[in-house]
Design goal:
The protein is α+β, with helices and mostly antiparallel strands. The chain is 15% helix and 36% strand. It has a six-stranded antiparallel sheet with strand order 10-14-13-12-11-15, covered by helices on one side. It starts with 18 loop residues before the first strand and ends with a strand.
Length: 191
Amino acid sequence: MLNSQQSSKECGENDDTIRWFAMSAPYRRELKAKEYLSSKGIECFVPMTNAIVEKRNGIKQRQQVPAIHNLIFVHCSKNIIKELKRGVDFLQYRTTPKNGKNVPITVPDKQMQQFIAVTQAANDKLIYLRPEEVDIEKGTRVRLHGGTFDGTEGIFVKIRGKRNRKVVLLIEDVAAVAMVEISNDLIEILE
């Protein structure tokens, strides 16, 4: 399970610690923000999926599109983000309430690497979910062994509206991705 919440001290205003920030680029400008940040040498990630898109001339075409609109993950320090926001003013922190304050959501490096690996696996059977669509309380933490997702940790859950159980990789308060059904012999239950 991905635990994205950090203490407000760890995400202080003048922080030079490099971490993954979950950010929003409203009005579907996540690719524009990614292009700008990449041109400045900043590592960033937008989860992509394949979709059938209808062009203005009525022709349907398969192409890669953002899987979760308005979401971009940025890997740098808070101080650098403050500087970058001058060039891309629509980029906003995604926050979570903590101790009466809205704290920027960050994702630990290891867990972000797992999320990137899963979402880049070119698997059309991935299902992207909002956090409220996953019933975490009933989930069991698991680690997968073998195959594309070897070593990935997630939650084994039943998703509302789906018949089968899947392993879900969750970034708390941001998003979740449900992977294909995994056979029981590839799953290790974590305590």
